[in-house]
Amino acid sequence: MASKRVATTSAYRCTECGWTSAKWVGRCGECQQWGTVVEAATVTGIAAPSVTALAPSRAARPITEIDTRETPRRTTGVGEFDRVLGGGLVPGAAILLSGEPGVGKSTLLLDVAARTAAAGRRVLYVSAEESLGQVRLRAERTGALHDDLYLASETDLATVLGHVDQTRPDLLVVDSVQTVSSGLVDGAAGHPSQVREVASTLIRIAKERDLPLILVGHVTKDGQVAGPRILEHLVDVVCHFEGDRQTSLRFVRALKNRFGATDEVGCFQQTQHGIAEVPDPSALFLGHGSREPGTCVTVALEGRRALPVEVQALTLPGSGPNPRRVVSGVDGARVAMILAVLEKRAGIRVSDQDVYVSTVGGVRLVEPAADLAIALAVASAVTGRPNPAQTVAIGELSLAGEVRAVTQHEQRRGEAARLGYRSIVDTGSTDLRGALRDLARLHPVERGDEPTF
Fold first, then answer.
1. Residue 239 shares a structural domain with residue 111
2. Which CATH number do you get for residue 407?
3. Listed residue (249, 124, 225) closest to 177, CA to CA
4. Parallel, antiparallel, or unpaired: how do β-strands 94-99 and 213-217 relate?
5. CA dihedral 13, 19, 25, 31 (to 10 degrees)
6. Which long-range contacts (CB under 8 A, 24 or more apart) does 32-38 make?
7. CA 308 to CA 412: how far, in whole Å?
8. Which residue stretches belong to region Lon-protease-like (predicted)?
9. Residues 199/202/208/211 CA torsion (nearest 10 deg)
10. Which residues line the annotated binding site?
11. Residue positions in the annotated binding site for ATP?
């Protein structure tokens, strides 16, 4: 009896999204990831195996019968980090913290681990990048020493699991997931298949034992989390730690949170003693109060926080046919548009001026609510007339010169009033010329001088 002929062909499949190709390519044509296309043998000529249904161990329940009591949370002792997490650590939650090298991820998590240990809970901190001595030196410098904080320097996943079984911690920190490897998967540490295996195993252990897990993730040059995209899908919370190396200000943003809101921001400051939280950062982005021409204050939103930010502008007569436009902390294209609106709609000539625009404190303004403050700061710099004291400007500028409403306007006004600002120039001015006239009325006219706006 002749046996049935079975034909075997070779295909290439992406380990991230499942995209297939007849030949090997270095970059997936679907998800655009590099190094994820591997050879996969396929068998043709026989019927594909079918999946047999199994009886579930637990029957499906109506959604109305599901217990809606809030999952208990454990505070970390770092209020700003708890704010981003939604109130604290949820048992069994997997948290991914990413950020640029040197921004302070390890320092922040060492502080979180020490404060959690001080609250009477055992913590296991696994460092796969540094030796135990290096971690101890940082802990001494930042005051993060505690007897219930256990350190381990391991890069093998099986050994890490052994430490978990031996220590039985209430919080597990792994720094970082890209430097731990498993002997069950081929490839070096950091390969997408290794990262996926390590993360899925640690998350499974965390779910089984109700053990909160914090993973540190490296980022690429584009600012994305290194490794497979599925890593961000596996975890419950994705936080990004960001900050400019030229300033001490640091922000933790929640990009994904299954247990809370994703628009919360934690504010920290890098000091010689580690990372210090800043519960009220309103004064960090304001100048010294001098009434010089070319300054204006706006109220920006960082997550749910309303923060006053001072915008400074300087103008000089242009020295060439193409005037310079130098910005810091604001969008250069947005500033160019605002300058065009100033000249066309308000009659303030800036086309022959070198214009420099910056923010105080290194904060970056990316929302259009700062348009009006930038315009008023530039107008003040051109005319040499300082804006009125204790005045903020909030509004988006259109190309027609209109002042448009912005989101969370009442919250911004409330923060300005809390900080003592007496006058607000906003959508009540209807257009840019109206805003300039409002400023002129607010400005005290001395010795009979008329406003020049």
1. yes
2. 3.30.230.10
3. 225
4. parallel
5. -130
6. 33/192, 33/228, 33/229, 35/191, 35/192, 36/192, 36/228, 37/12, 37/13, 38/12, 38/13
7. 9
8. 354-453
9. -110
10. 99-106
11. 99-106
Alpha helices in 230-302 (DSSP H): 230-234
pTM value is 0.75
Alpha carbon 38 to chain centroid, angstroms: 33
Instruction: Round to the nearest angstrom and report the end-to-end CA distance of the chain.
Output: 100
Q: Indicate the DSSP class of residue 336.
A: H
Number of domains in the chain: 3
**8 A C-beta contact, residue 248 and residue 363:** no
User: With the C-alpha atoms ordered 369, 360, 311, 445, is the resulting torsion angle positive or negative?
Assistant: positive
Q: Which two tokens stand for residue 395?
A: 């509004």
Closest CA to 313 of 333, 299, 297, 337: 297
Nearest of 195, 198, 234, 246 to residue 218 by alpha carbon: 195
Q: 262 and 307 in one domain?
A: no
The per-residue pLDDT for range 94-151, each reduced to its tens digit, is: 999 999 988 899 999 999 999 999 999 999 999 999 999 999 999 999 999 999 999 9
Q: Which residue range(s) make up the domain with 40?
A: 8-44
